[in-house]
Amino acid sequence: MKLRVRVQRQTLRVELLGAEPSLKELADHVRDALLPSQGLSRPAGGVSQPEGASASAPPPAPRWEPMLCCEAQDGHAPLSLELLLHSAETASPTDAIVVAGHLLMLETGFLPPSGELPSEMPAGWRTPAGVYRLQYSHPLCGSSRAVVLCVSMGPLLVINASLKLNGSVDAVRKLSVKPAAYVTDSWPGGGAAFRDLNRLSRVFKDQLAYPLIAAARDAMALPVAFGLSALPPELVLRLLRLLDASSLLRLASVCRTLAVSAADPSLWRHLYRRDFSGETAAARWSDNTITRRW
Description:
Elements: E1 2-7, E2 10-15, H1 23-37, E3 40-41, E4 49-50, H2 79-88, H3 93-107, E5 131-136, E6 145-153, E7 156-165, E8 168-177, H4 179-182, H5 197-219, H6 233-240, H7 245-252, H8 256-262, H9 265-275, H10 278-293
Antiparallel strand pairs: 1-2, 3-4, 5-6, 6-7, 7-8
C-alpha cells in the first residue's frame, strides 16, 4: 500500500508492505516513523513537540493535529485542547471542562465573537464569581446567537445554552456534568488530565450543540441541516431497509417526515421478503396469533 501523508505542509510518501494495515497500525507507523523524521515526537499527553524540548516549556505552535475530542482515547487529548488549556491557565477541573466545552462548540462549527482567536479562550470567559460565559455565532444559524452560561453547583457543573434570535430567547438547552468524571484529580505542572473525553464530546454535542443548531434553523424556517430528515429520500430508504418491522413502526412515530418514508410500499415489500417469507414467516404468524389470543 502506498500513501501520501501531509506533515508541516510537506507531502511525505509512505509504503507499507504486506497485508492491508488497520487504522491503528497506520497511525502507529505515522507516529513512529514519520514524525521523528520531521523533528516531532508524541508524548503521553498527546501534544506533539520538538524532540529535546523541556517539559516545562510552553506548548509549541499548532503544527500537527492528531485527533478530535471524539477520537481521544487512553487519556490523550487533541493538541488544540492542550493549547487552549495552557493559554487559559486553568486552575480546576471545572475550568478544564469549560475549556473542553468551548473546543467542542468550535468543532461543531460555532464561531467565537469577531476578533477572537479560536486558539485562545475568549476574553471574559471566566468571572471571579465562578460563572463562565461564552458567546457564539454559526454559519447555519443566520443572525441568531448562542450564549453558554456555566455555573458550578457542588460536584456538578450546570451548563445552560440559550439561543437568542432578534433580541429574544428562542430556545434553552441544559446539561449537567460532573467534572470529576472527565478530569483527573492530579494536575502535574498545572495541566489537566482528561478521561472519557470521547464520551464528553458525544454528550455535549448531542444534548447542546446540535439541538441549538436545529432550534435556530427551525425558528428561522430554514430546512433541516443534518440528521435523517436532511438525507435524500433514496438514502433514507436504504437506511430503513436495515431495520426490522417493529423498529420501523417505532421510528415512524417520531415525526411526519419519517412516517412518510416508513410507509413506502417498496420498503415493506423488502421487509416481507426478508423477514416474513417461507416457514419462518408462518411460524412467526402462528406465535403472534397465539400471543394475541392470550
